């Protein structure tokens, strides 16, 4: 292309120079009959070549006044004027003319030789991909481009022609292929954009795997190749397809009609044996009939008002929508029956061509749902009629729940500080119709969720029942003061919740030295001389505040009570003392191995015993003689 363009420019410039009759010098040179006259015309200008028109030099060369041209060039060197561009241009133009003259000596030159270009092909489920190279053999170099590219497609025929030049020869590339099956010309495309090649994408009339490219098995085309590299990439989309054996094209070759259902060719009187397609269509070479496959639908109502719809109904066509021309979408009163108006008319929502790329239908904002409509139905149609069985979709009218739960309750059963657990009870909403579940959140107020980690859980609605949720022991997120319960469904959450203020219940003595910790414990000296036997009196000094306390719990201990919360020093339970009982108790009995202390904890009625304790050392009196015992 670049070369051709430059050539064209050069010719145009020379022609322009000749046409520029304006300049007297050029005019005079043009009318000069011979070199001598031209020399006298130019003589006055040769002293100042800088101001001389460059066209004059070109003209001298084109007229082939070689001696004069050489003189001018040598003078230009003396005057340091660069004429090389003009000279080269004119010389090239002359040379081209001369070369063309030589080529014309070839009697066939100028007549484009018609050749069949090499090509390769691949397929996916819906398309055939062709690359046509402007050369006869795939691996041979060829023309870089073609002029007048032309592509015609009808039925199963693909024709291409284009003119190209290569190695001083002109070629007319012409390719005509009779494909295995029909193609959709309007949905097919081609492009001459890449160097030396034409890229073509043919849309198959029916999406399926062809066993070969050509209609006639016996046709031999030696510069046709399978496009392996491409086919390997496309094989994924063909997995699950097995090659068909016939098509209307192959059946027509034998004077028969194609039966899709059985993938066989039938005589036209035998279409009655083609399942579902019993009408002979000689023109299309097809046993035809109503469609026999249905599409499916998907739709999500985007209109949150009750009894109103809007949004996009998407039609998902049947994999083998061979003979479907359009898909018609109706309001349905069941998953198979169309809804009718009071005048008995079917209620069509819209009809979409099966060939369009986006099979969808818009339902405008605020479209009312007709009385009695429960489904959307999609029917496959063609010129023979409608497939009786539709694809269906249950209508789901998007709307928020109408009522919040009527109550919420919770009692903290975790005695830990800042920790809560317990059963959350959600009282059922007065109107449960649009509710599918309740969602539980932490709230920073009776109406607003905490800014972070508010979500606790969803709880399924149980028609006519209160529901509950077990909150396992946890620390509520920052700022949480309430529990909130929202009514919810697939379309959203009713913004207004029911709430319950959370009270963090704690057991006594959750930190050291609190008023609910026992103030102290005293232990008398062991009065039992037997080893590992004790007889002591333990006196507990009660807590300053006994409000949360039900009893004190006394244990053997391996260590004294420290600042760390750890129960690991307990070495066995001794006894419990209710707070209203005397806090001075006699202890007599065995001492567990390793016990050097007596520990006292305070304990609440239902939240368990304290984390911290008070203690006193215990020394086991082992003075009794033990020899007899060992016998
Ligand atoms: C394609 O080319 C063939 C062979 O020249 C010709 O018979 C046919 O009519 C052409 N078809 C189209 C669609 O151009
Ligand atoms: C396509 O059709 C046009 C109009 O009939 C014709 O001029 C042209 O040559 C055809 N091209 C091919 C490749 O058959
Ligand atoms: C087959 O190729 C066509 C054209 O490139 C493309 O639109 C379609 O998505 C492909 N099919 C699959 C299953 O990838
Ligand atoms: C057509 O049907 C007749 C009767 O069933 C049968 O004998 C004949 O073989 C069929 N012909 C074809 C081409 O299927």
From TrEMBL:
Keywords assigned by UniProt, alphabetized: Signal
Matches recorded under InterPro entries: CS_dom, HSP20-like_chaperone, p23-like
Gene Ontology MF, one: protein-folding chaperone binding
GO process annotations (BP): chaperone-mediated protein complex assembly; protein folding
GO terms for cellular component: cytosol; nucleus
TM segment ranges: none
SUPFAM superfamilies found in the cross-reference section: HSP20-like chaperones
Region (Disordered): 612-631
UniProt superkingdom: Eukaryota
Domain called CS: residue spans: 114-214
Signal peptide: 1-19
PANTHER family named among the record's database cross-references: CO-CHAPERONE PROTEIN DAF-41, TELOMERASE-BINDING PROTEIN P23 HSP90 CO-CHAPERONE
Family: Belongs to the p23/wos2 family.
Protein name: CS domain-containing protein
């Amino acid at each position: 292309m670049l070369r051709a363009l430059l050539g064209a420019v050069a010719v145009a410039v020379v022609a322009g120079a000749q046409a520029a009759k304006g300049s007297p010098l050029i005019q005079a040179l043009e009318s000069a009959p011979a070199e001598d006259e031209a020399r006298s015309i130019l003589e006055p200008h040769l002293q100042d070549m800088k101001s001389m028109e460059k066209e004059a030099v070109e003209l001298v060369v084109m007229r082939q006044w070689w001696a004069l041209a050489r003189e001018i060039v040598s003078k230009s060197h003396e005057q340091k004027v660069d004429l090389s561009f003009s000279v080269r241009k004119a010389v090239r133009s002359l040379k081209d003319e001369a070369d063309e003259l030589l080529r014309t000596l070839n009697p066939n030159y100028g007549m484009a030789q018609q050749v069949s270009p090499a090509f390769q092909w691949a397929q996916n489920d819906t398309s055939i991909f062709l690359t046509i190279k402007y050369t006869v053999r795939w691996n041979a170099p060829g023309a870089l481009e073609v002029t007048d590219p032309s592509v015609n497609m009808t039925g199963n025929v693909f024709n291409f022609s284009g003119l190209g030049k290569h190695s001083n020869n002109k070629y007319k590339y012409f390719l005509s292929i009779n494909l295995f099956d029909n193609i959709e010309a309007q949905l097919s495309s081609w492009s001459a954009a890449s160097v030396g090649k034409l890229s073509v994408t043919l849309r198959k009339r029916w999406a399926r795997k062809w066993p070969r490219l050509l209609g006639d098995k016996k046709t031999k085309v030696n510069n046709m190749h399978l496009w392996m590299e491409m086919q390997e990439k496309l094989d994924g989309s063909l997995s699950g397809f097995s090659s068909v054996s016939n098509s209307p094209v192959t059946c027509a070759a034998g004077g028969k009609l194609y039966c899709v259902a059985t993938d066989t060719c039938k005589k036209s009187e035998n279409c009655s044996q083609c399942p579902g397609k019993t009408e002979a269509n000689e023109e299309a070479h097809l046993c035809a009939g109503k469609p026999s496959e249905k599409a499916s639908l998907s739709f999500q109502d985007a209109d949150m008002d009750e009894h109103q719809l809007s949004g996009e109904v998407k039609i998902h066509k049947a994999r083998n929508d061979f003979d479907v021309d359009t898909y018609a979408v109706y309001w349905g009163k069941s998953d198979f029956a169309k809804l009718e108006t009071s005048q008995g008319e079917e209620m069509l929502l819209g009809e979409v061509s099966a060939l369009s790329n986006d099979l969808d239908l818009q339902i405008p904002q605020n479209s009312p749902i007709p009385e009695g409509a429960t489904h959307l139905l999609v029917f496959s149609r063609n010129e023979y009629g409608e497939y009786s069985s539709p694809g269906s979709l249950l209508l789901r009218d998007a709307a928020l729940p109408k009522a919040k739960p009527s109550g919420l309750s919770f009692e903290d059963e975790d005695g830990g500080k800042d920790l809560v657990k317990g059963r959350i009870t959600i009282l059922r909403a007065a109107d449960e119709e649009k509710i599918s579940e309740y969602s539980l959140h932490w709230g920073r107020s009776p109406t607003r969720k905490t800014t972070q980690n508010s979500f606790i859980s969803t709880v399924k609605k149980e028609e006519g029942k209160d529901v509950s949720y077990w909150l396992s022991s946890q620390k509520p997120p920052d700022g949480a003061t309430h529990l909130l319960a929202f009514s919810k469904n697939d379309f959203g959450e009713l913004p207004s919740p029911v709430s319950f203020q959370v009270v963090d219940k704690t057991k006594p003595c959750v930190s050291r030295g609190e008023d609910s910790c026992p103030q102290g414990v005293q232990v008398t000296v062991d009065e039992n001389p037997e080893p590992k036997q004790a007889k002591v009196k333990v006196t507990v000094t009660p807590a300053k505040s006994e409000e949360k306390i039900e009893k004190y719990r006394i244990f053997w201990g391996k260590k004294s009570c420290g600042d760390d919360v750890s129960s690991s020093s307990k070495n066995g339970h001794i006894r419990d003392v209710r707070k209203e009982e005397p806090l001075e108790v006699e202890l007599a009995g065995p001492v567990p191995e390793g016990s050097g202390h007596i520990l006292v904890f305070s304990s609440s009625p239902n939240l368990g015993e304290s984390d911290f304790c008070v203690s006193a050392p215990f020394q086991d009196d082992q003075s009794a003689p033990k020899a007899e015992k060992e016998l």
